[in-house]
């Protein structure tokens, strides 16, 4: 859920940041949100190609690496945004809010890949459960984020969720995934 909160932040809080903090019009705020959304697809493609060709690291190692780039990188850029004085002409203020969403693309070789590795031919069912979790996250994030991070410690949520992933990730199929159907 911590990873899905990044997308919720993009959809809900980034437009508010661009409108209320930077003073942009709703049209410009919406346009700025499109940039990382469009950039996610080519980054996912490139990340997938790199992951497929990276043979010096085990599958679990690759999933840990790519998920950590997404989470730790996103947390780093959100933290850097705190230190940038927001102004209309501040490229850094815009970039530090948008980059974590582009880095979200790295999760396709992280936790999304782990679902396929664990579930094998049952991955469509597992992905449907992941999408249900995503929808619950998106519906509840508006309420959960302020409750979980009352002091705007959003980065801790990203880092903590990634640490849990890194500890428990597996690349071998579960026993139930090997059963004949």
Automatic annotation (TrEMBL):
A cellular component term, taken from the record's GO annotations: membrane
Keywords: Membrane, Transmembrane, Transmembrane helix
Lineage: superkingdom: Eukaryota
TM region positions: 20-43, 64-85, 91-112, 124-148
PANTHER family: MAJOR FACILITATOR SUPERFAMILY (MFS) PROFILE DOMAIN-CONTAINING PROTEIN (PTHR45757:SF18), PROTEIN CBG23364-RELATED (PTHR45757)
Protein's UniProt name: Membrane transporter
Source organism of the structure: Pristionchus mayeri
């Amino acid at each position: 859920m911590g990873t899905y909160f990044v997308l919720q932040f993009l959809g809900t809080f980034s437009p508010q940041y661009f409108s209320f903090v930077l003073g942009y019009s709703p049209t410009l705020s919406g346009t700025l949100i499109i940039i990382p959304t469009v950039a996610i697809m080519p980054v996912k493609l490139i990340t997938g190609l790199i992951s497929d060709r990276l043979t010096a690291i085990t599958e679990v190692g690759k999933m840990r690496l790519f998920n950590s780039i997404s989470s730790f990188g996103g947390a780093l850029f959100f933290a850097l945004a705190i230190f940038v004085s927001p102004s209309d002409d501040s490229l850094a203020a815009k970039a530090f809010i948008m980059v974590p969403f582009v880095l979200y693309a790295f999760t396709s070789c992280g936790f999304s890949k782990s679902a396929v590795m664990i579930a094998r031919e049952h991955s469509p069912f597992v992905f449907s459960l992941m999408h249900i979790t995503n929808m619950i996250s998106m519906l509840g994030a508006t309420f959960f984020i302020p409750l979980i991070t009352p002091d705007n410690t959003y980065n801790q949520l990203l880092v903590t969720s990634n640490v849990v992933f890194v500890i428990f990730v597996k690349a071998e199929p579960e026993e139930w995934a090997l059963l004949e159907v």
